[in-house]
Design brief:
disordered N terminus; 1 helix; 4-stranded antiparallel β-sheet; mainly beta; single chain; Methylamine Dehydrogenase, Chain H; 29 strands
Length: 381
């Protein structure tokens, strides 16, 4: 065999090996991708007063949803007085924990919290139902193994738990009253709206909505305990409802009274310094999700979704025009990769799936129907 033929043969072998390796890698990647896809789910809470359920949808690589099953929580849903499309009048009534292997749900009508173990993400196994430590639980905050539940009825309270071995263990002495003067069930405007940890886990924040329009800030201390009382901060605009954070740890708050987003710096003494506010000109802005540096605000009275962004100083501004939704645009959830937003529409019994574009605009890709009217609670694994 001549030298040219040997070189040609070697070249062919190299090419074939490269092709084999490429296809092998592609197949491995596809298997990995498929495995990842098969473990993605969207959870929606029905909040039915007769018997609360979690509806599970498989979430495909392209953001599309497919019904997988419905699971009883072992408790009852609740309806805040005066509410129409948002029976819990809160954000965060469902929470994913332990890296997506656990789902926590409130049962506002029976003052309990349910813990599910997830199997392959889109299957649920009820493991535990525990007292919420108060009346009408509406929101859950998770930071590693530490969990706090917000009870909106009566005086309002937060109750702490350790999450360990698929169980919630109540932390003795962790219950803190909010000192409100509400009924049980509470009025939807006066009830506290959300509980959440700051990104560094050093503080727990609670919004009181129209019960004083306060943003309560607790210190998180050793053993998961909170400071004995919160520092109460008046919100820049009335009725602070739901919140998120920016990449600098600043608080990004939706205030329903003026349909605004306000940003705050959190100071060492738990006080807040207002950076700025921006109104979207829409009725009843209450809920917020963050993705790709944009903040998507649900306007229940629109019904639509406003998009916000922050400048380097944290000043908020509205981006573009609102995106049309369906009746009762309430709680939402965005995927960790920032590609998709899932919007609950409690007045229509629907979940809308949107693709999030690079400019912050939203493209509707699917409408899921058949949910109760109203309903509330959404989470992703």
């Amino acid at each position: 065999m001549g030298r040219s033929k040997v070189l040609a043969t070697i070249l062919v072998v190299v090419i074939l090996v490269a092709i084999a390796l490429t296809f092998g890698a592609a197949n491995a990647s596809a298997k990995s991708c498929n495995w990842h896809q098969n473990h993605q789910a969207l959870y929606v809470q029905t909040d039915e007063p007769s018997a609360n359920h979690i509806v599970v949808y498989h979430r495909s690589w392209n953001g599309m949803l497919k019904f997988e099953g419905s699971y009883a929580t072992g408790g009852k849903g609740g309806v805040a007085a005066g509410s129409v499309v948002d029976p819990l009048a809160s954000q965060g009534s469902l929470a994913s924990a332990s890296g997506g292997s656990v789902l926590l749900a409130v049962n506002a009508g029976s003052d309990t919290v349910s813990l599910f173990r997830t199997a392959r993400g889109d299957k649920l196994l009820l493991k535990q139902v525990v007292p919420s430590g108060g009346q009408f639980p509406v929101s859950i905050a998770v930071r590693g193994p530490l969990v706090y539940v917000l009870n909106a009825g009566g005086a309002g309270s937060v109750q702490g738990y350790w999450l360990f071995c698929d169980h919630l263990w109540a932390i003795a002495g962790s219950n803190r009253s909010l000192g409100l003067e509400n009924t049980n069930p509470p009025n939807f405007l006066a009830s506290p709206g959300m509980v959440g940890f700051t990104p560094d886990g050093s503080r727990l924040i609670v919004t009181t909505k129209n019960s004083g329009s306060m943003i309560d800030v607790f210190d998180v201390r050793h053993g998961g305990m909170l400071s004995s009382a919160p520092v109460m901060n008046a919100s820049a605009k009335p009725v602070p409802f739901a919140f998120s954070f920016d990449r600098c740890g600043r608080l990004v708050m939706v205030e329903a009274g003026a349909s605004t987003v306000s940003t705050y710096a959190i100071n060492h003494d738990d006080t807040l310094t207002t950076i700025g506010s921006a109104a979207d000109g829409q009725p009843a802005a209450c809920w917020i999700s963050m993705a790709r540096g944009f903040y998507f605000v649900s306007n229940a009275g629109g019904p639509n979704i406003s998009t916000y962004m922050l400048d380097a100083s944290g000043m908020p501004s509205v981006v573009g025009s609102p995106t049309a939704a369906a009746a009762g645009t309430i709680d939402s959830a965005a995927t960790r990769d920032g590609c998709y937003l899932y919007q609950e529409c409690g007045g229509a019994g629907e979940v809308l799936a949107y693709r999030i574009n690079h400019d912050g605009s939203l493209t509707l890709i699917q409408t899921v129907t058949g949910l109760p009217i109203p309903f509330e609670g959404i989470a992703l694994n």
